[in-house]
Amino acid sequence: MSATRQASPRRVSVAPMMDWTDRHCRSLHRFISRHTWLYTEMVTTGALLHGDVPRHLAFTPAEAPVALQLGGSEPEDLARAAKLGEQWGYDEINLNCGCPSERVQRGAFGACLMNEPQLVADCVKAMRDVVSVPVTVKHRIGVDAVEDYAFVRDFVGTIAEAGCEVFVVHARNAILKGLSPKENREIPPLKYDYAYQLKRDFPQLEIVINGGIKTLDEAEQHLQHVDGVMLGREAYHNPFVLADVDMRFYGATQAPITREQVEARLIEYCASEIARGTFLGAITRHALGLYRGVAGARGWRRVLSDSRKLAKADLAIFDEAREHLRVPDEIVE
Description:
It comes from Paraburkholderia lycopersici. This protein is α/β, with parallel strands linked by helices.
């Protein structure tokens, strides 16, 4: 695998996560890793076509590369939204076919789209017709009680015929009734072998695996079978897991950044954002896990999540939080 797909820009990526992977979160991740492929939260076509486009799409060039994830099921609307995404500078347009939430189901998109592969193919073709950046699909391996590998194989085959070349496979079923989105990330069993088999059956496609991956050692194991690995909750709660990605998976030669260097960049970023009127807590909430595993990390989190302190917009809050950190190699959490 590594010999033939070394150049994949999605070798390691951070999943699109609602209410989490906003521009502040992506900026933090970009401080830690220059090459990790980043995704936006899912943005619905309705929000773009009838709402505040800059609020949903504005990001800084320093965050790139960034992919825009769209939610929708109408080919024409998705084409218009994809065009907006390209105009705003995104490097990829990704269609959500994996979210199982009831709100998304009511909009007739997300994981329920896996039951309509030809519609997804039409959506992909409509987007590809109007943009030059890659159009990709993120999906599950099955829906509800469908356990047969042939289901996801035929889904991918149908979408590939529409010109999609990159598939992000969350290697769990989506249970559309009876499980919350959180339970859908934990209860359906992981079947990594389904993603591996997709790569064997479609060697010409780029297959990225997602679901339950917590360490770079695990990522390395998966990359023996597929082209890319997508980290989700682990990258959010433990962002420093990305520190070794550039050297390990992208051939970077410079030493990984330290937590202290990340913090210094974050403070500079906070200063510039406060000057723009951004609430400090909107940024620090993404950095609560920066010192995860370091002695005193609980105190760091407590200070940086204190709403009264954050309301003062005083960057001295970082000094106070740092006072709780003791000898870095004294692991207590």
